[in-house]
């Protein structure tokens, strides 16, 4: 099975303990754990700092599953949950793959931390998750809410810890069953 994971730094596997954008080891990144557990061919298209693109790239026609998790950076840049959801809808609507091959994951809610100084950001991230679920239903695509997987976050309130990546992988594997 050919799978693409398209997202931001939490898909990339960013390790917030380093200063220069390092990554956790492959044994700790959720995308790599998914590869090992399933035997699937998985492309990690995570990128640090990625906001929801204005247009979808051309994903390969032989993609069996496209997993999309975006929106956290949009909220951190000051977009409202509603604005982020509108961007996400335009992005998802521009994907040429069959709807049955797309899975939208709502990122886990942020927590107070170095990058999250305001309880409003946490509330916005929870609102965004609810809006993502409604969007997935409207577009008739698969949906998972990572907020239900108890993901430990780093000191910044945004990035997964090593245990967070493992918890995310476990939650996603359960969802994909």
From TrEMBL:
Gene3D superfamilies: SGNH hydrolase. Residues 5-167 form the SGNH hydrolase-type esterase domain. It comes from the Bacteria. Coiled coil: none annotated. Pfam families: Lipase_GDSL_2. InterPro entries: Ester_Hydrolysis_Enzymes (IPR051532), SGNH_hydro (IPR013830), SGNH_hydro_sf (IPR036514). This is Lipase. It comes from Pseudoflavonifractor hominis.
